Amino acid sequence: MTERSDKSPRMLSVVIPAFDEEVFIVSTLKKIKEYLDLQSFDYEILVVDDGSTDRTAKWSEQWLENNPVGQVIRLESNCGKGRAVRTGMLAARGDYCMFTDADSSTGIEELEKCWPKFEQNYDIVIGSRALSKSVVVRRQTTLRYTAGLIFRPLRKLLVMSGVNDTQCGFKCFRAEVAQRVFSKLICEGFIFDVEALFLAHKMGYRIAEIPVVWTNDPHSKLNTFSDSLKMFYGLLQIRYRHFSEQYQDLD
Questions:
Q1: Number of structural domains found in the chain
Q2: What pLDDT tens digit does each residue of the chain (251 aa) get?
Q3: How far apart are CA 87 and CA 99, in angstroms?
Q4: Across the chain, where does the E strand assignment appear?
Q5: Is 251 a domain residue?
Q6: pTM (2 decimals)?
Q7: Residue 179 is part of a domain; what is its CATH number?
Q8: Would you report the helix, strand and coil content of the chain in percent, each value rounded to 5?
Q9: Which of the four, 94, 95, 213, 233, has the lowest number of CB atoms within 10 Å?
């Protein structure tokens, strides 16, 4: 069992947004439970089913009936990853709250790298594939990788710099920070990560990046062309909302 540090949680909430993830969801739940059972803190797992058309919710509910460590929250329709994560983070009961992808592209064991950062009084710790010590086991397609290379400088120019990788789906927040940030979140699609970190930065919260081991899911549902256009448009929306003062009470 891992020893509890001063900044490790009394209870950790793990939010898993899931849309048509019946192939991965049970194995991901098993991996998370096996790791967290060895820790010195309590935990809960919240699967937020984003209107799946397959058996994601069914398999999750059945597994959690046999392993009562959390719950499934069902959204009535496919609202987007941002809505799913927001729903889960606002429902979380832990004093630390994290979200991670249903395909385990970043393993739950990377969590142990977060606690030293929280001990240094960071408020949010995020996985980053862009750091020198990060390991990418399976890379994205050339097209998606190129789209990412274009997206990063645009994001830094239009919205925020100072963060190398906003899109890795492995992020942990102090509970009070998560509640404040996600209660202000507007974006419902894949650009929500940028908006959440932008809001956190404007609120004065400290963000740390950690190197992670990351494996690309070759069955990703991202459409490189259409979703890249949506994300670029999302950057413009965040910038417009900021300058038109649509974000309130961030100071």
A1: 1
A2: 444 455 678 999 999 999 999 999 999 999 999 999 999 999 999 999 999 999 999 999 999 999 999 999 999 999 999 999 999 999 999 999 999 999 999 999 999 999 999 999 999 999 999 998 999 886 656 666 777 778 999 999 999 999 999 999 999 999 999 999 999 999 999 999 999 999 999 999 999 999 999 887 656 565 666 878 899 999 999 999 999 999 887 86
A3: 11
A4: 11-18, 42-50, 70-75, 96-100, 124-128, 135-138, 170-174, 207-211, 213-215
A5: no
A6: 0.92
A7: 3.90.550.10
A8: 40, 20, 40
A9: 233
Domain contains 248: no
CA distances to 39, 79, 133, 238 from 86, in Å:
26, 11, 30, 17
Domain of residue 166, residue span: 11-243
Q: Is residue 4 part of a domain?
A: no
Q: Is there a domain that residue 17 lies in?
A: yes
